[in-house]
Write a structure and sequence with these properties.
This protein has about 325 residues and is an alpha+beta fold. The protein has two domains: about 190 residues, Jelly Rolls (Sandwich); about 110 residues, Orthogonal Bundle (Arc Repressor Mutant, subunit A), CATH 1.10.10. The protein contains 14 helices and twelve strands. Strands 9-10-1-11-3-6-12 form a seven-stranded mixed beta sheet. A five-stranded mixed beta sheet has the order 5-4-7-2-8, with no helix packed on it.
């Protein structure tokens, strides 16, 4: 019997809805920094909107301060800042804090950097990074994620993953060999997904919000239709019929699980797609409008500003300014 590799490659993997969501969260690396830090040392990480920032301790320990929280990270542990909140990271005693932009960072490639910083005392090593969102659902996911997520190497669910990946990251960070950027970026993706998976798995239905809707056979199907065909002018009746429900029961159940009406959700989903396109592509506003089902730039711009609070031009300008500031 011959092996049909093309057929096997085209076969979709059956997965839990939340697993599919996490798999769809494609992110683009903003930067990765391999750091060697010697006491005394302290750094200020600025807020990075639309980014997930993370740190993994490869050796030693560090203290983190974010908003009203203070915690330590030991060797092998990992912390994720889903919303890119600004924070302070130090040896726990250093009083002089250096802003990120003033650190002696050495660029290895466009996105991969090294840092050797501190007073020459006890050594700590970590890999830090930031990843830009490329999927609108990532922004919605932030609504149920805390300011930071920690994973310890002795965690029941993900400890073995973190420990194994930490060892691989440590080896790559020390060698800085050819292809290190690609290896570190993929290892970081694994850590981010593992962190979110562990956190989400511990929440009950009352805490997961719209994620519960993804798991519902019929409402989840309607969400997939909207996500896959945002340019279609869906009506309440069409969606209800597509999932085998009456118009009234569908509207009621959708509002209960998702939090708003199907048509309002469709509009918000379109604006989320547009928001990402304005930031991550050079497509014209008219082209983006047509892609998500609007017939004119003016109609799209009015709807966009109503939902987002800014015009398409303002969103693109703000994002460009943020990028310029990050590279200055």
């Amino acid at each position: 019997m011959s092996f049909d590799y093309k057929k096997r490659a085209a076969t979709q993997i059956v997965d839990h809805p939340v697993g599919k969501l996490l798999d769809s969260l494609r992110m683009q690396s903003a930067f990765y920094t391999s750091s060697r830090l010697t006491r005394p040392w302290g750094m200020i990480m600025p807020p990075m909107p639309n980014c997930m920032m993370y740190h993994i301790m490869l050796e030693g320990a560090a203290e983190f301060r974010v908003k009203d929280s203070v915690f330590s990270l030991e060797e092998g542990a990992f912390v994720l800042f889903p919303a890119g909140d600004g924070h302070v990271v130090s040896d726990g005693q250093c009083k002089t804090l250096t802003p990120l932009t003033a650190l002696p960072i050495e660029s290895v490639t466009e996105r991969y950097e090294t840092l050797d910083f501190g007073g020459g005392g006890e050594v700590s090593r970590m890999v830090c990074g930031a990843m830009l969102f490329q999927h609108p659902l990532a922004i919605k996911l932030l609504g149920i994620l805390p300011p930071f997520i920690k994973i310890h190497p002795d965690s029941e669910d993900s400890g073995s993953i973190v420990t194994s990946v930490a060892e691989l990251l440590k080896a790559e960070a020390q060698s800085v060999s050819v292809g290190a950027e690609a290896v570190i970026s993929r290892l970081a993706d694994i850590l981010v997904i593992a962190a979110m998976r562990e956190y989400l798995s511990k929440l009950d239905d009352s805490q997961t919000g719209w994620l519960t809707a993804l798991e519902d056979d019929r409402i989840g199907k309607s969400l997939k239709l909207i996500h896959d065909q945002p340019a279609r002018h869906w009506s309440l009746e069409e969606l209800a019929t597509a999932v085998g429900m009456s118009r009234t029961s569908f509207a009621t159940q959708f509002k209960k699980l998702v939090g708003n009406t199907p048509i309002d959700y469709l509009t918000e989903w379109r604006m989320s797609l547009a928001y990402s396109s304005l930031q991550l592509t050079k497509d014209t506003v008219l082209s983006i409008a047509l892609d998500i089902g609007y017939q004119s730039e003016a109609a799209f711009s009015r709807a966009f500003k109503k939902i987002i609070g800014k015009s398409p031009a303002e969103v693109r300008k703000d994002y460009q300014a943020l990028n310029e500031a990050a590279h200055s």
